[in-house]
Amino acid sequence: MTAAPHPTAARAASAARTAATRPGTRPLLLSAAVAGPLWSALSLAQALGREGFDLTRHPLSALSNGDLGWLQIANFVVAGLLTVAGAVGLRRALAGTPGGVWTPRLVAAYGVGMVAAGVFVMEPADGFPVGTPAGMPAALGWTSFAHMAAGSLSFAALIAACYVLARHFARTGDRTRAALSVAAGTALLLGDGWAMTGGALGSLTLAAGAITAMLWVSAVAVRLLRTL
Predict the structure, then answer these.
(1) What tens digit of pLDDT does each residue of 33-54 get?
(2) What residues contact 99, with CB distance under 8 A and at least 6 apart?
(3) What residue spans define the domains of the chain?
């Protein structure tokens, strides 16, 4: 005798079928699927290839400085716009399910924060780009504060999105993905918190946490694509 499907899971499947009938849903979800891996790959490639950059000391945002800084600026803006577009796909695919309202809102806020973090660039600091004096500048300009505010918005929204996704998966009976959602959000929460305290290797823990959470949102988008 076949067990009856979880009622919330059945609603999720119904939402996916409805989303599939709307034009543009697949490209929108694909945008969310691509955004995390794109930003992560380009950031890490630059971290390995840019002279003077040290991920144990410099945040990935610092790559927006120097002759090749335009590449990281574009990386932030493009990945952020893809994320905002992807949030529309998530809204369609998750409609009527637990977390179906707040997950896309939070993902959209995370994407807007990324765009803003690309527009407002941190000042050169701590020896990067090459030739910059060691340590932090005596005073930070307004663009650095704007960048930090944008980053705080983006990270807070991304952490919350992961926890809301955990609720979604728990309610649909997918305990494994619920646990992975919690793990992804917590990785960013702890990584960012450690960096904010000035802890050793803070930029590295922040990068690891951010990339983990970003890739998880992309993985969820891939899963939803497969249900369409």
Answers:
(1) 999 999 999 999 999 999 999 9
(2) 164, 165, 167, 168, 171
(3) 27-123+136-227
